[in-house]
Amino acid sequence: MSKKYWVHTPHKAKPNISESEKNLIKEKCDKFIDSKIKPGATKPFNPKIKKQQCVDNYCKWYRNYIYFISEFKDTRDDIISPEYEDKYARLQCIGKDKFLLSYMRHTGVWFELTFGNGFTLNQCFERMLEMPHFFIDYLHD
């Protein structure tokens, strides 16, 4: 019969991000959203169109993650909620200008695209524009 042992496995230390760093990163993300995402994805709301419409894009911090969020309005007859938000990208800060890029899968689970290697913020922005995981439906309408 095998014996069982307790083994101590400490958690990885999360980097502490100062408020000034967070504000600087958020400012860069807001500029990216305003210049690259909003022109193609965000349109004024038209109540005559019977489908989901992306009306806003923004980002916000939660712990060591910055989430990219789309806000939708929907005028279809069989909807649960006429307004909702959808998180489509997540950047996890792992160091000085190092981020892990993830997207939300259809299963509701975040999937990391950087595989443990950190990208710079600009590299993450480039990949968000290049990869089809992020803006499939509403960017190209």
Task: Describe what this molecule looks like in 3D.
The chain has 141 residues and is of the alpha+beta class. The chain has one domain. It has helices at residues 19-41, 121-130, and strands at residues 52-62, 65-74, 83-95, 98-104, 110-112. The chain has a five-stranded antiparallel β-sheet with strand order 1-2-3-4-5, with helices on one face. Strand 4 and strand 5 form a beta hairpin. The longest helix is centred in the first third of the chain and has 23 residues, at 19-41. The protein is globular and about 70 Å long. 17% of the residues are buried.
List the helices and strands and how they pair.
Blueprint: H1 19-41, E1 52-62, E2 65-74, E3 83-95, E4 98-104, E5 110-112, H2 121-130
Antiparallel strand pairs: 1-2, 2-3, 3-4, 4-5
List keywords for this structure.
141 residues, five-stranded antiparallel beta sheet, disordered C terminus, 2 helices, 5 strands, alpha+beta
Based on DSSP secondary structure assignment, what is the total number of beta strands?
5
Question: Helical percent range?
Answer: 10-25%
SS-based structural class?
alpha+beta
Arithmetic mean of pLDDT:
83
The main sheet comes to: 5 strands, antiparallel
Number of helices: 2
Strand order of the largest sheet: 1-2-3-4-5
Which word captures the global form?
globular
Poorly predicted segments: 136-141
**Count of spatially separate domains:** 1
Beta content comes to: 25-35%
Give Rg in angstroms. Answer: 19 Å
- H/E series: HEEEEEH
State the distance separating the first and last CA atoms: 63 Å
